[in-house]
Write a structure and sequence with these properties.
With 341 residues, the protein is an alpha/beta fold. The chain has a single domain, classed as Luciferase-like domain (TIM Barrel). The chain contains 14 helices and twelve strands. The protein has an eight-stranded parallel barrel, surrounded by five helices. The chain has a two-stranded antiparallel sheet with strand order 6-7. A hairpin with a 4-residue loop joins β6 and β7. α8 packs across α10, α8 crosses α11 and α9 packs antiparallel against α10. The model has no long low-confidence stretch (mean pLDDT 94).
């Protein structure tokens, strides 16, 4: 059975207490986990620390901590702290973000993101195991060579904290299969599952593992209603934003993922319109399939069958991105949970 998750973020623009209420309702409905977003507004940590005190059973995951925003040791300390506060409910989601955020917001080079991700995971594994943090790599040296530092062991007992990686590019997906406990997938379609899963599988098998060793969690846009065409129209702008704004003109992993699913001409055309400032035209250029094949959209029966298609290709969990219906976000989430069950 698919496990359900929800995502929270952007609470600076909304009522944070209403957000807490939604998460508590989700917990009561049987939602398995909540994942906190981090882009260029809200951080991924603060909300989870607060939610740890407001929930009892839900797992609490960062979706994602940007590896360029913190040193690996700080990521480890933060993770161990959240795991302690939540009584073992914490899930660490990591990602490399993109050059616009990494270089524009954090002021650090984006070059060789996969190498930095690999080294970050290696240091985190040491920290979680209670080992001294001695590490020598291309991107990180602990302790700093030539300085006065010495290898330190974090002042926390060892803890088993699952590491989920939000990856999209083929080599990063292979690393996920080889080294991660879970995958946070976006731009995923069960109709084109091998565009992602083939790479994760290859990485897993190369490391002596199988796809069953990784919890596969995919983001899934959910819109339920009888006016299917109207639902699709409401979702086109979000797809256009992914194609044109979620990265630079040269580096956009979301755009690349849609290309691998067979939408090269559409993805490039939408991106070009967006970059030229023609955002309405970009949204209109989004074909129906780029909406319907990457989520669960339509009548209740259509959504129920769509959920089944995710399970059939091996997905273990879905992060439900709800388009609120007439009854609001909570009512639509409740309906989605009924259809998922």
């Amino acid at each position: 059975m698919l496990k359900a998750a929800i995502a929270v973020g952007g609470y600076a623009r909304s009522n944070a207490r209403e957000l807490v209420g939604l998460v508590q309702t989700a917990e009561n409905l049987g939602v398995d986990s909540v994942w906190s977003a981090e882009a260029w507004g809200s951080d991924a940590v603060t909300s989870l620390a607060y939610l740890a005190a407001k929930t009892e059973r839900m797992k609490l995951g960062t979706g994602i901590m940007q590896i360029s925003a913190r040193s690996p040791s700080m990521t480890a300390m933060t993770s161990l702290s959240l795991n302690e506060l939540s009584e073992g409910r914490f899930l660490l989601g990591l990602g490399v973000s993109g050059p616009q955020v990494v270089e524009g917001l954090h002021g650090v080079a984006y070059a060789k993101p996969l190498g930095r991700l690999k080294e970050t995971v290696a240091i985190l594994r040491k920290a979680f195991a209670g080992e001294k943090l001695a590490f020598s790599g291309e991107h990180f040296d602990l302790p700093r060579p030539g300085g006065e530092g010495k290898p330190l062991r974090l002042d926390h007992p060892p803890a088993e904290i699952p590491i989920y990686l939000a990856t999209l590019a083929p080599k990063s997906l292979e690393f996920t299969g080889a080294a991660a406990d879970g995958w946070l997938g976006t731009s995923f379609s069960p109709d084109h599952a091998e565009a992602h899963l083939a790479h994760i599988r290859a990485g897993a098998e190369g490391a002596g593992r199988s796809l069953n060793d990784i919890f596969l969690n995919a983001a899934c846009t959910v819109a339920i209603g009888e006016d299917v065409d109207g639902l699709i129209d409401k979702l086109r702008p979000g797809v256009a934003f992914q194609m044109g704004a979620m990265g630079s003109a040269n580096t956009n992993f979301y755009n690349d993922a849609f290309k691998r699913a067979g939408y090269t001409d559409d993805a490039l055309a939408i991106q070009d319109l967006w970059i030229k400032g023609k955002r309405d035209d970009a949204a209109k250029r989004v074909p129906d399939a780029m909406v319907t094949e990457f989520g669960a959209i339509g009548t209740p029966d259509m959504v129920r069958e769509r959920f089944k298609s995710y399970a059939e290709v091996g997905i273990n969990g879905l992060t439900l991105r709800i388009l609120p219906g007439e009854g609001g976000h909570t009512a639509t989430l409740e309906q989605a949970m009924d259809l998922l069950g």
